[in-house]
Design goal:
The protein contains 12 helices and no strands. The radius of gyration is 19 Å and the shape is elongated. The two termini are about 25 Å apart. The C terminus is likely disordered.
Length: about 220
């Protein structure tokens, strides 16, 4: 695909959005949760861990810990044991406890609804805050950039940036604000179901005509 102007890339993004929206009409956050606190906890646990594993752990965790105060008051060793299989459990347990202590002390036990307040909580960065704001409160404050979003942004030729924060800023320029949350879901679902890192299913890809396949030619050559 020849070098695009910004206007051409923006127009192509709109067609990509239309294609992904049609392919994944039920796309949503795949971390199980029923309220903002559960989503915040699940997102913290999802670092370097699959959503499937997190959901297995939180099925029991959410039955035992129902409020921010429950996490804040829990012994650290108890939290560590409860989330051990998610990996990096010591740091995650510290983050959960610190985060929930701040929610109790500064926010009356309720998960805050702003980027500034969320990112001041222990263990909460911009990505986690975007997940919570977009999915728990329907506030499009930014674009969640996980490994799938970063990889597909490159493969689709939307940018050359590699740092998550820079990728997010570029995507925020290309994607309408009201679609920031869903755009992440669409790319994540496509990355998990069709556009695998090593074996992308280009033959059946719903947006194949819009993709320059950056990095795919080498992958396909290895498979031949």
């Amino acid at each position: 695909m020849p070098r695009e102007t910004k206007a051409a890339t923006s127009a192509r993004v709109q067609r990509i959005i239309a294609g992904l929206k049609k392919a994944y009409p039920s796309a949503h956050c795949e971390l199980d949760h029923t309220n903002p606190l559960e989503l915040l906890v699940a997102t913290i646990l999802s670092a370097q861990c699959t959503d499937k594993r997190v959901n297995l752990v939180t099925a029991n965790l959410f039955r035992k810990y129902r409020s921010a105060a429950d996490y804040a008051q829990a012994p650290l060793a108890e939290l560590e044991q409860a989330i051990k299989s998610t990996g990096f459990f010591r740091n995650k347990a510290k983050s959960l406890k610190s985060c929930c202590q701040a929610i109790v002390e500064k926010h009356g036990g309720k998960v805050p609804r702003t980027m500034e307040e969320l990112t001041q909580l222990g263990g909460v960065g911009r990505k986690t805050a975007n997940v919570v704001l977009g999915n728990a409160f329907n506030i499009n404050c930014g674009v969640v950039v996980d490994t799938h979003v970063a990889r597909l942004s490159q493969r689709l030729g939307l940018m050359k940036e590699t740092a998550p924060e820079k990728i997010e800023q570029e995507l925020m320029k290309l994607v309408p604000q009201e679609q920031w949350t869903m755009f992440s879901h669409w790319l994540i679902w496509h990355g998990r179901r069709r556009c695998d890192a090593r074996k992308p299913d280009c033959a059946n890809c719903e947006i194949e005509a819009l993709c320059p396949r950056i990095g795919v030619s080498e992958v396909k050559a290895q498979r031949l």
